[in-house]
Known about the structure:
Layout: H1 2-19, E1 26-34, E2 39-48, E3 51-64, E4 70-82, E5 93-104, E6 111-123, E7 131-143, E8 146-159
Antiparallel strand pairs: 1-2, 1-8, 2-3, 3-4, 4-5, 5-6, 6-7, 7-8
Amino acid sequence: MILKNLSVICLILSQAVVENICNASENSLGIGAGAPYTGIGINYGFINNADLKYISFGCMSIGSSSNNAIESNCGFGAGWMRSDIITTKNDNHGIGLHVSATYNTHDNRDDIELFYGVTYGYYFKGMDSQGWSIGFSPSIINDDKGSHSSLWVNLGYQYD
């Protein structure tokens, strides 16, 4: 039941991001680590006023097993951040939501892992400008072992 609900949330959030492509006044490409990048990866964002909606692709880990097979935990995500929640006078602070799904093949697993949570980001030059960002994302992870919590530390660079 939890996986079904999370799948619906992923679809709704992804649809909201795609619908906003036409309405975005600016686009951005980001590189970094953390929830907005689905691990170590990239994101493509759509910025409109105080909104940043993005899709991401990244990997939590890539390695090799004892039989020389490549193992990975990579996937896609989507998120939404607003910079006017804390104060309308400053677009350096962003608060939002993130959802991602990864496919984990480590330790002979074929497991889809779902991550969802809230995200806080501090954008040194503003959310709508090129530059560095840092933040954190408390999240819930659902995998074949059940549900558990995690705290992501986010660090990235957004390009105009």
